[in-house]
Design goal:
The complex is a heterodimer.
Chain A lengths: L24 H18 L7 E6 L1 H9 L10 H15 L8 E4 L4 E6 L4 H21 L1 H6 L5 H19 L1 H13 L16 H18 L14 H16 L6 H8 L5 H22 L1 H21 L5 H14 L15 H17 L3 H6 L9 H11 L2 H8 L2 H7 L2 E6 L4 E7 L5 H11 L2 H4 L3 E6 L7 E6 L8 H15 L3 E7 L2 E8 L4
Parallel strand pairs in A: 1-3, 7-8
Antiparallel strand pairs in A: 2-3, 4-5, 6-7, 8-9
Helix pairs in contact in A: 1-4, 1-12, 2-3, 4-12, 6-7, 6-11, 7-11, 7-21, 10-11, 12-13, 12-14, 14-16, 17-19
Chain B lengths: L1 E4 L9 H10 L1 H14 L9 E6 L16 E6 L10 E3 L21 E6 L1 H8 L15 E13 L9 H14 L5 H16 L5 H20 L10 E11 L1 E9 L6 H21 L2 E9 L3 E4 L1 H6 L8 H14 L7 E8 L8 H15 L2 E7 L12 H12 L3 E6 L2 H12 L1 H5 L1
Parallel strand pairs in B: 8-9, 8-11, 11-12, 12-13
Antiparallel strand pairs in B: 2-5, 6-7, 9-10
Helix pairs in contact in B: 2-12, 5-6, 7-12, 9-10, 10-11
The chains are: A alpha/beta, B alpha/beta.
Chain lengths: ~525, ~425
């Protein structure tokens, strides 16, 4: 996909920034500053201040196991992940990431001491400028995360979990966290900005206004009217009221349990809250993985190339960079043994480069498909806008060009469990472009990839049974064994019977039930 | 921008997580260790251990969409020949090409391989086993340091001030320098007052007394009650702390009837015992004695590899062991353990002598004597008694520090070992 020839280079007497693979702190600083001139001055990036932390491979493994965060509460699952990563790493089956970057303000970048200076330069350009810009500007991150608070919050979470362990015992804390982790993907409020934060309060205010109105318009004569009997109505409206009071239906299972589970103690609810907020914090990353990597890869490619053109990098450095860059953006075909889905670096980088191409050298096809920006000449402005205002799904829908579909030789397959064979639904041709683009976008929509589960009924006064509904799409049911195990966790938190109904358009397809174990 | 060097930060930040993880999977890990023991080489008995567990308690379930129902769409890269409407046979096991997407640890969920450190391995391995008969714990080998009193010094932290010693020195100094006591001065003063009041006054006497009183008072002022010189502090020194030591005798029948597999069984048992003892004693010496109709002390390699021909006279081995004990391992200083392996053969004439030696001389100096009888593949039954088994059965009834078991295959080793050393068995 990339042009692996060395780009032309102006002959000059500028001394390269570095030569050889050894790095030191002065070099890092000098390189960072020089890159800053390109990134901020020429590319127009806007970043949080950076904090670069140099760590060892072992520390990188540590960071891996705590989902990449510098601080994390203690839980066995992180130990499991560590053991797993370590085993793979030690057998040489997996190499470690060169860097890790955290969406915080200041933006924390971990770089490994084992890296050569070229790799450090690549990593600085990639993370400290690329990812950093994306974190600061993408609307998803702006909407959902508070990067200036996250480290403090993790500090609190870690301390709080440790205190709970001390007070209530490791087992008690573990059982709540296990259950919360199981529901983590359902701990996100997709529209929490618009949700009335306190339904009860609003109801109270409404009642207050009504009372005031009645008082103001009181006329004794109405007392003489006979009372209307409406028992039936009041019962159904009572349950409706209850539903409304509970904010049902509710898609954020962790939020619902935290607020309404009858048997949860305060500290248990607080643990749920910690897991829920973390889940919410990672939500934008799940939605923008491809774009985020694409942006960072594009930025490092631009910066390194511009530095090279100025003679600030040696040929050796450039070759090492290209080698590493091209292996990062390699996309194996579907029938390759190495294939494991789309490589977010590959697709992301290709799309960014393609947008640049459309801006600068559009074909007629591009003009027809992208009338807004084809040939506009401002590639970076267009890209910055795309980085700020889209997520993976909408980005593909908006920017995936026919040329790229041809380059990747994309094709769409329909797979119905009922049929013996899969069917090719569309290929990279005139009839298929739009279809493929739409389907690929859906593939990146986590709202479609995750099952749509909602709390639909909760009886707080009587049997205390909780009912969840899985709104089945295209007949895809939940994985039975996993669902039942997870439901058991949910029952444990709720404290009473829990029912999960899988229904498609009102038609019940399957039901699961779980009772909390004593 | 800020660059922080974190390389020197404390490592293994996730140690707490690891402990929680091991605690969680303890039962499965122990199971896995036992399984792996069956097939493992003896030389690997000790050391880091790769463990694969299939664990229910390590599951992390979540609501996820099943693979077996419904209709899906995939977009895939790398089309070569497909046209719209082509049918693609489904790969075995269903699913399309989206293997690794979805949950980050969806793969390898049930089967899970990781590495235990040597310490963790041994902890889990011998978790519920105890060392029997730890009566005699000799303090000899000097290794671990500890703090011990080592006299007094003239300076040190206030907390270590020795008041008795300080007062004793102060007293000595005051006596030596003739520091007048308060009573002494008061007596003189009274005498002076009496002399002053005396009529007629003996001026000479008064003035000598006055000079005397002043002198005494000056002495008392200049000679301190407690002088910095008097201060005495307790002193502590790091001294190597004596630790326990043990010697383990491995006795084995090397006659031709002990075939390679039988020796291998014995070897496994010896290695387990060695690893186990190493956990309790800083120093564990190994002595290998093999015997046919004569016995000799040999090195490990010869012990397990070499073969000899000849009859079987067990008492020679016991004698050799006693000789080694006399020469090098005084029972007063060493914890002595012995493990004997044989296929149960012995010259008939030798049995009385063997039993006699064992019960009268060997067992009294041993912490523990374990006899394992290795038999060929077929399951043994107790009715088929070998001469040795029959003879030893007498002893096992009377001596508490003697135990015997039969082993037929590598799988038996750990259970037998476990039986011999399980915490319950030992306390009874």
């Amino acid at each position: 996909m990339t042009d692996t020839k060395l780009p032309p280079r102006r002959k000059s007497r500028v001394r390269p920034l570095f030569d050889g693979s050894e790095w030191n702190f002065d070099l890092l600083r000098k390189t960072y500053d020089t890159m800053g001139e390109v990134a901020l001055g020429e590319l127009g990036l806007d970043i949080y201040p950076n904090q670069i932390e140099v760590i060892t491979a072992e520390q990188m493994l540590d960071a891996y196991s705590s989902i990449g965060m510098p601080l994390m509460y203690r839980h066995w699952s992180f130990g499991k992940r560590f053991a797993h990563d370590e085993a793979f790493y030690k057998r040489g089956m997996r190499s470690l990431a060169y860097e890790l970057v955290i969406n915080s303000d200041p933006c924390i970048n971990y770089i490994m001491e084992e890296n050569s200076m070229t790799m450090q330069a690549l990593v600085l350009a990639h993370a400290a400028y690329g990812h950093n810009h994306f974190f600061k500007n993408n609307y998803q991150f702006r909407l959902w995360t508070q990067p200036d608070h996250i480290i403090d919050y993790l500090e609190f979470a870690k301390r709080y979990v440790a205190e709970c362990e001390e007070r209530h015992g490791q087992d008690a804390v573990e059982s709540v966290l296990d259950a919360a982790h199981a529901l983590m993907n359902h701990g996100v409020s997709r529209d929490f900005r618009t949700r009335p934060r306190d339904v009860a309060k609003r109801e109270r205010e409404k009642a207050e206004r009504r009372r005031a109105y009645e008082e103001a318009t009181y006329d004794d004569i109405y007392r003489t009217l006979p009372e209307i009997v409406r028992e039936n109505v009041s019962e159904s409206s009572a349950s409706k009221n209850e539903q409304r009071r509970l904010g049902l239906p509710e898609e954020n299972l962790l939020y619902f349990l935290e607020k309404h589970a009858p048997k949860l103690e305060d500290w248990q609810a607080e643990l749920l809250r910690i897991v829920r907020l973390l889940s919410q914090y990672f939500y934008p990353q799940r939605q923008t993985k491809m774009m985020n990597e694409g942006c960072a890869t594009f930025v490092h490619y631009e910066i390194i190339n511009r530095l090279y053109e100025r003679g600030l990098l040696t040929d050796g450095t450039m070759l090492e960079f290209l080698h590493s860059h091209s292996s990062v953006i390699y996309q194996p075909s579907f029938n390759d043994r190495r294939f494991g889905g789309f490589n977010p670096y590959a697709l992301g980088f290709a799309m960014m480069c393609d947008i640049k191409r459309v801006c600068l050298e559009p074909t007629d096809e591009d003009r027809a498909w992208f009338p807004d920006f084809a040939g506009c000449g401002d590639a970076l402005g267009t890209l910055r806008q795309a980085w700020a205002e889209f997520r993976d799904e909408s980005f593909i829908l908006q920017y995936l060009s026919p040329k790229l579909m041809r380059d990747f030789r994309l094709f769409a397959v329909s797979d119905d469990a009922k049929d013996a064979a899969m069917r090719v639904a569309a290929i990279h041709d005139e009839q298929g472009y739009k279809d493929i683009r739409r389907r690929l976008a859906r593939q990146y929509d986590i709202a479609v990839q995750d099952p749509d589960l909602q709390v639909t009924d909760a009886d707080l006064s009587g049997s205390r049974r909780l009912v969840l509904t899985h709104y089945v799409r295209k007949g895809i049911l939940l994985d039975k064994a996993e669902a039942e195990r997870t439901l058991q966790y949910l029952a444990q938190l709720w404290g009473y019977r829990v029912k999960l109904v899988e229904s498609d358009d009102g038609r019940v397809l399957k039901e699961h039930e779980a009772l909390p174990m004593p | 921008m800020q660059i922080v060097d974190r390389r020197l930060n404390p490592k293994s930040k996730s140690l707490g997580n690891r402990q929680r993880f091991l605690r969680r999977a303890k039962a499965e890990i122990r199971e896995a260790i036992r399984d792996s023991l069956k097939s493992r080489k003896v030389s690997e008995a000790e050391g880091a251990e790769k463990v694969t567990i299939r664990s229910k308690s390590l599951r992390e379930p979540s609501f996820s969409l099943g693979r077996s129902t419904g209709a899906r769409d995939y977009v895939l890269p790398g089309n070569e020949e497909y046209r719209v409407g082509d049918q693609i046979p489904k790969p075995q096991g269903g699913g399309g090409g989206r293997g690794n997407q979805g949950s980050p640890d969806g793969e390898g969920q049930d089967e899970f391989t990781f590495t235990l450190t040597k310490e963790e391995f041994l902890d889990l391995f011998f978790d519920d086993l105890k060392l029997p008969n730890l009566i005699k714990v000799r303090l000899k080998d000097l290794k671990a340091p500890k703090f011990a009193r080592a006299g007094f010094t003239s300076d040190g932290p206030p907390a270590r001030l020795s008041r008795t010693r300080t007062m004793r020195k102060s007293l000595g100094r005051r006596l030596a320098l003739h520091r007048p006591s308060l009573a002494e001065i008061e007596a003189l003063e009274a005498e002076l007052r009496a002399a002053e009041d005396e009529i007629p006054r003996d001026e000479a006497k008064v003035s000598t007394l006055r000079v005397k009183v002043e002198h005494k008072q000056r002495l008392r002022r200049t000679i301190a009650y407690i002088d910095p010189l008097d201060l005495q502090y307790s002193r502590f020194e790091r001294v190597p702390k004596p630790t326990t030591q043990a010697v383990m005798f491995c006795l084995m029948d090397a006659s031709a009837s002990m075939t390679e597999p039988l020796k291998d069984l014995a070897k496994r048992f010896f290695m387990l015992l060695h690893v186990f003892l190493s956990r309790y004693y800083r120093e564990v010496h190994l002595v290998f004695i093999r015997h046919t109709s004569t016995a000799s002390e040999v090195d490990e390699e010869t012990f397990f590899r070499g073969t000899e021909t000849g009859g079987t006279v067990i008492s020679t081995a016991l004698e050799e062991m006693l000789k080694v004990v006399r020469d090098r391992y005084s029972p007063a200083d060493w914890n002595i353990y012995a493990a004997q392996a044989s296929d149960g053969d012995n010259f008939h004439d030798d049995m009385p002598r063997t039993l006699d030696l064992l019960s009268k001389e060997v067992l009294p100096i041993c912490q523990y004597f374990a006899y394992i009888e290795t038999t060929h593949g077929e399951r043994f039954n107790d009715s088929v008694e070998t001469p040795v088994w029959h003879g030893y059965a007498e002893i096992v009834r009377t001596r508490k520090n003697f135990a015997m078991r039969r082993v037929a295959s590598p799988e038996d080793i750990f259970p037998v070992f476990h039986e011999l050393f399980s915490a319950n068995a030992v306390t009874t």
